[in-house]
Amino acid sequence: EPRSPCCCLAWALVIGTMNCLVFLLNLLLMFVIFTIVLLPTIVVVYFGFQCHSQVLHSSARYCKSILDDNSSSALIILGFVIMSPLLVLAMAIYCSLARRLQLLVCLQPYSLALYKGAPCCARGCSSQLKAWV
């Protein structure tokens, strides 16, 4: 049976807030995983740009004694080359973790705000709502 307009608005706010929190949790998880997996690329590209004379030309000791422009260019190229496989690896890790934690199943439809009763998953139709089989 349909809810009253005031109750419908309250439930819509609760469901919207919950969906936003689940979205932010997914975003935070994705950010952490991508940062950890792409850390080698970030470090290599950072040192390449840091020591190149045409870009930042740092006066650090390691830039003067170890890295010249050619080796800095090689670091920049290496960083961008290893980024592609690491992006694929990070996405695979995120997808398997999101599947294992069932994060996408936590998103609730707004029809729960319109009608009284148990959610669809509690009535036994959860097999139709699975994001992954």
From TrEMBL:
Location in the cell: Membrane
GO CC terms, sorted: plasma membrane
Domain of life: Eukaryota
Keyword Plastid applies: no
A molecular-function term among this protein's GO annotations: PDZ domain binding
Transmembrane segments: 21-49, 74-94
Protein's UniProt name: TMM88 protein
Originating organism: Elachura formosa (spotted wren-babbler)
